[in-house]
Specification:
By secondary structure, the protein is an alpha/beta fold. It has helices at about 15-20, 60-70, 100-110, 140-155, 170-180, 200-210, 225-240, 255-265, 275-285, 290-305, 315-320, and strands at about 30-35, 45, 55, 75-80, 115-120, 130-135, 135-140, 160-165, 190-195, 245-250, 270, 310. The strands form 2 sheets. Strands 1, 2, 3, 4, 5, 8, 9, 10, 11 and 12 form a 10-stranded mixed beta sheet that branches. Strands 6-7 form a two-stranded antiparallel ribbon. It binds ligand PBG.
Length: about 325
């Protein structure tokens, strides 16, 4: 049936009709709120490049997490800015480190929220790279030991899920083995499976003080030009034991999100990263776009591409609108 008998506009006539035929919806269940935690007390420091986001000390973090839980958001992901950084990331594997303390504080007073921890050493290394550096090179296999120790330390502190974001080869297997050996067979791994060496992480690196002191991350994070390689990365992480796979950043990789959804039978996360958030906030501030409308359009596009869950700095803002 074609025009003039078929007229697609009939079902666009008003919002009620549009609601009835809407194919993609955002739900509270889709949202994961990233949070930054710093040492000290009574700290709620605005992050300049991420309007509306803060670095929290553990006491203030607990209050924030309560609010997030009360909004109905099911999960948070924690990033830590430690007291000190060195060349072996010792503050990352300290059972009394910033993330470990944050987890214990949250667990002590907030129920009904999933705590995911980002497993990576860039925030804890004096050189800002995601692995051990020797002679200017990022050493893969030695880093696996460090990452699995970090993951185990998070889980011992009470983390519900760990999310390795470093892009070393074999890290999902190393972490799975380590957790299983320690009896944590029920803790899921959300793998940053296809993570590009992207320039969209700029504001995050300011927020987490994790920019590399020399070079870049291109020897471990993926070349954003490669679609088939992204699928291979996802396949490897599933083989190694990933329970949830992630594509990151989300917006420049909607094709890959769709491919992963179609080709693999695992829950799929997408990370709407700091630069994507900052661009919308900045353009809205300038009055160039309607920030709220663009926020929804962006997150719906990520969902429509196939994401089952979205890590986004917009989580709280969206939750307030859709609940
Ligand atoms: C740690 C990590 C990064 C992000 C998440 N985990 C930074 C990076 O890889 O440089 C980026 C998140 C964002 O930009 O919102 N490796």
């Amino acid at each position: 049936m074609y025009f003039p008998r078929y007229r697609p506009r009939r079902l666009r006539k008003n919002e009620l009709l549009r609601r009835m035929v809407r194919e993609t919806k955002l739900s509270l269940d889709d949202l994961i709120q990233p949070l930054f935690v710093v040492p000290g007390t009574n700290v709620k420091e605005p992050i300049e490049s991420l309007e509306g986001q803060y670095r929290f000390s553990t006491d203030m973090l607990v209050e924030e997490v309560k609010e997030i839980r009360d909004l109905g958001i099911p999960a948070i992901i924690l990033f830590g800015i430690p007291e000190y950084k060195d060349s072996s990331a010792s503050s990352a594997i300290d059972d009394n480190g910033i993330i470990q303390r944050a987890i214990r504080s949250i667990k002590g007073s907030v129920k009904d929220i999933i705590i995911i921890t980002d497993v990576c050493v860039c925030e804890y290394m004096d050189h800002g790279h995601c692995g051990i550096v020797e002679n200017g090179e990022i050493i893969n296999d030695k880093t696996l030991e460090l990452l699995s120790t970090q993951a185990l330390s998070h889980v011992r502190a009470g983390a519900d899920m760990v999310a390795p974001s470093d892009m070393m080869d074999g890290r999902v297997k190393a972490i799975r083995d380590r957790l299983d050996d320690a009896g944590f067979t029920q803790i899921p791994i959300m793998a940053y499976a296809a993570k590009a060496a992207s320039s969209f992480y700029g504001p995050f690196r300011e927020a987490a003080e994790s920019a590399p002191a020399f070079g870049d991350r291109k020897s471990y994070q993926m070349d954003p030009c490669n679609r088939r390689e992204a699928l291979r990365e996802v396949e490897l992480d599933i083989e190694e034991g990933a329970d949830i796979v992630m594509v990151k950043p989300a917006l420049p990789n909607l094709d890959i999100i769709r491919d992963v959804k179609d080709l693999f039978n695992r829950p799929l996360a997408a990370y709407n990263v700091s630069g994507e958030y900052a661009m919308i906030k900045a353009a809205a501030k300038m009055g160039y776009i309607d920030g709220e409308a663009v926020m929804f359009e962006t997150l719906l596009a990520i969902k429509r591409a196939g994401a089952d869950m979205i890590l986004t700095y917009f989580a709280k803002e969206v939750a307030k609108k859709i609940r």
